[in-house]
Amino acid sequence: MGYLGGFAVTFREMFKDRLTSEYPDVKRPKPERFHGRHVLNRYEDGMEKCIGCELCAAVCPAKCIYVRGADNDPQNPTAPGERFGFVYEINYLRCIHCDLCVEACPTEAITESKLFEFSFTSRRDAIYTKTELLVGDDGRPKQQPWEDWREGDDKHTSGWMRATSPGGLAATGGTVQWSGELGYGVRAPEPGQGGEVEFRLARMALAAKAAKAMTSATSDGHGAADPHGGGH
Amino acid sequence: MMALLAQVTDAGDPLFEKGVKLFSTVMLIVLIKAVLAFVILLVAVLLMVWFERKVISDMQDRIGPNRAGPWGLLQTLADGTKLFFKETLFPERADKAVFRLAPYLSAVPAFLTFAVIPVGGVVHWFGHTWNLQLADPPIGVLFSLAISSIAVYGIMLAGWSSGSKYPLIGSVRATAQMVSYEAAMGLAVATVVLKSSSLRTGTIVAQQVGTAHIGRLSLGWISGWNIIALGFVPAIIFAIAGTAELNRPPFDLVEAESELVGGFHTEYASARFAFFYLAEFMNTITMSALIITLFLGGPLGPDTGIWGLGRLSPVWFLAKLLVLLFCYVWIRGTLPRFRYDQLMDLGWKKLIPAALFWLLVIATIRLGGSTGDKLLHFAVAIPVVAIGVWVLVTAMRRGRERTDAKNAAMAAKTLTTGRPGRF
Questions:
Q1: How far A141 CA lies from chain B's nearest CA (Å)?
Q2: ipTM exceeds 0.85, yes or no
């Protein structure tokens, strides 16, 4: 076809379906791992999960998180343990929604919801403090006037974490390794880790490898192979 | 055909008939026609921009403009309104007078060329016979060529007066490109003029009525089109050169975004930018109309010959225009931009020789005489042309080989010494 082949391609495309959706009218379902605006989670008993360790602030590449920890009042603790997040601020004019803070958090205190349509009109509104970020008493995020939440979006506040296998291992996909949340209890894993079949197969392969290592270790008497992956 | 020819030439502009009185029906009608042509062309541009955006988005599996008005029809109007309310900026080093003048030099010729395009047959208004054409001067084709050359000044001066690097490069490119392609374009038009022995656009259209028919079904309205009668080559050359003249993709090196920011109109904003935009799309329409007039039988349609140039002739004209405009959009949606040397190669080494050769062939045929005479002409002409082409091709190949050898030697030197050789 040479030069004319291209003309056939463009002509054919004219009769194919459009790929774009009419965005403000039609909104596509968002994936489980969507990176939206953050929430600060609480335990089932209402205690805050944040321990004020500042790991999120340290890892943030945009330097948009500001955290200050403080000692808990022993009589009336805000979080279980010694410390809690006294000040927690995220500047959404800087945040790039990379989710590194979520990965860094040791207590699943900070997670990302699916909300991305929040067009604040002042710089003050752009800085979310604990007042805005902390989930309400029903476990749902507190909706700000300028936020455009979709039906059901407020239930997916920790989707990214629960759709990602703990420790980043395919073999551990689908296992619950997170604490309960206020209003929900311990939530089930989300799909989206390459499919249930794949990670079950991977887990079986790992188990078989471990079993083989175990038998070889017992047979030659070294005991070097650790079936549980080592690192203790 | 003769009847139609007589009709067209006799129904020349009433302005030329018995002197011109300033306050007369004739003058009024000419004025109305001018305003009508202006408004129609302006609306056509609005629709053309919309049409182009929609078709391109179809080809790219997108939706395209759909918010302003039904199917996004008013999008161009919205954009235009916005542009006219924007701030007018002058670059610090701009030559202000020329900077102001350039957009008009670009937009006005776009309107003017359309004046000589016959869009339909003959109508009888107010006791006068009129062509559906703003003016039918005896030099119509020359006029359109001359005016389209003026448009080059708009682009060239815009780039130069901006006092900025990219626009200057864009305008230099524009000048070189126009000069290269105008020659081929002129030679293609010359074949048409040779065939119809007239520069008058009305006559050129009337000359395109043929005689072919299948049984009682007359095909005269299509068989005589210049694209067929002149053997396709001039029409193709004219279409390619015309596209280059318009600076439309794939020949849009003048405003190549990836290389020159915005090209010649980088420094323009607001209404002045709108004029360039307007001119670009209006030129596309005008060029399509010119191709129709010269090669595709103008407003000739299936009803030609039944009522002279039929009552539906503007419809046929519009249909042909739509097809051509679609082709322009299709080309834009398909072909990538030419590299600059490819552009020059196509213009100088392919189009001009081909157009020249074809002009000679047509001229030889037109020379007349008996069949024996014609054969003799060809017997002389073909070897001469063949020798000429051979000399040209050999010269070009030798030149290229020499340059290649020089470059290879230079590259080898660079490789061995580690320093770039002298070029």
A1: 33
A2: no
